[in-house]
């Protein structure tokens, strides 16, 4: 069961990243909320190093693949993101803001690591930033007044990719903290899926 849930999560999140890259270039925007993107990139870089320090491991390789995909999504943000901000946000201001945001993502991961240790920090940080991402996807939908730069495939894959480790760590391993965060993620993810399904033409954006 543990292997199955791990594989479901890995496959689902890989679909999220691949689709986010595709949709970002298609719609000339970024397909993942930037604060969550910064935390994701930092998480993958931080724990890929830890996983691979003692040798090549499946999780370490997956983290590297996800990190590479995140870098492409970061490119779409840097390439198209300024166009979605008010005109008074100059290129230098956008550059400084972006650098600060991504540096903060790494600082947060290192603080979690220092306080909780690698085992707990990787899980707590992952679920907290996952919950943040769930809420920010709803905010992205509202800010763009529709599903531009988003897709039903991203929404469903994100939900399943989070639900599988929620069952694994929250139910099978008995972590009430992870279970609570995972349930909250599902509430927001299902609300987001509902928005995309109700939006005319939203289903077609998953293809």
TrEMBL record:
It comes from Streptomyces katrae. The chain crosses the membrane at residues 64-81, 93-118, 124-143, 152-171, 177-197. GO terms for molecular function: lyase activity. This is Uncharacterized protein. It is a multi-pass membrane protein. GO terms for cellular component: membrane. The keyword Transmembrane helix applies. InterPro entries: PaxB-like (IPR039020). The keyword Transmembrane helix applies. It is found in: Membrane. Keywords: Membrane, Transmembrane, Transmembrane helix.
